[in-house]
């Protein structure tokens, strides 16, 4: 069984997202916890969440993925920006407990010419402040493409963050196929080799989710422009290998391709036809 979904708008609530996911053949979805370019979050609607949890159980939904806003930068050179990231993530952690046992993904941030080592230490410091022993949410570092001064451009940087997190059992990684190909990991010609390197540096047990995206950019371009499945430099064959790989096939896959709902439905159907 392929556990797959797409990114959906959270503006109409969880029950609506669940029904939208089901309508496109999905059994999971990704959503922003709040405005992706700001900080405002909707008030919690406990009745809506209760209806969604019942709906998800009845329709055998797998783990869903929350995505932090893009504006967060826990390794900014500005203290106020780092504090904003901490406060926002702390609030998100509280909100996530209304849907227990799910995933929360964020972009590690940009060190803004401070150097990756300082960035790594700042990100770990923020995580050590927000993670709680009793939480049920697993927080994921996303693999990045390496544009600008991004932290998380390689497995070594992600491993260095995880090594510094005290409650590391609450942590994991979300692997973005577009990002890692752009970063220089050749999942087209050497998927096994890339996964072996991930396992040796981080551990495949820490890999909790996949952003399944094609890319508009050639290998090792260090950019970040997603493409529809099969229409970019990765191609359909490479992405089919990803969803069928023994180490990956049971993970949840999330589409972030440039699509509307009908486009996501077509991609989900296409990928399901190639499940082995």
Write the layout of secondary structure elements.
Blueprint (H helix, E strand, L loop, with lengths): L3 E3 L7 H10 L6 E3 L13 H13 L6 E3 L11 H18 L6 E4 L9 H15 L7 E5 L12 H10 L6 E6 H7 L7 H11 L5 E6 L1 E2 L10 E2 L7 H10 L8 E3 L5 H12 L4
Helix pairs in contact: 1-2, 3-4, 4-5
Task: Note down, in words, how this protein is organized.
Strand 2 (30-32), helix 2 and strand 3 (65-67) form a beta-alpha-beta unit. The protein has an eight-stranded parallel sheet with strand order 1-10-7-6-5-4-3-2. Strands 8-9 form a two-stranded antiparallel sheet. It has 276 residues and is an alpha/beta fold. 44% of the residues are buried. The chain has helices at residues 14-23, 46-58, 79-96, 116-130, 155-164, 177-183, 191-201, 235-244, 261-272, and strands spanning 4-6, 30-32, 65-67, 103-106, 138-142, 171-176, 207-212, 214-215, 226-227, 253-255.
* Rg (CA only): 18 Å
Envelope shape: globular
Oligomer status = single chain
How far is the first residue's CA from the last residue's CA? Answer: 9 Å
Major β-sheet profile: 8 strands, parallel
Say how many strands there are: 10
Kindly name the structural category: alpha/beta
Strand content: 5-15%
Strand order of the largest sheet: 1-10-7-6-5-4-3-2
Give the H and E element order: EHEHEHEHEHEHHEEEHEH
**Helical segment count:** 9
- Averaged pLDDT: 97
Helix content: 25-40%
Poorly predicted ranges: none
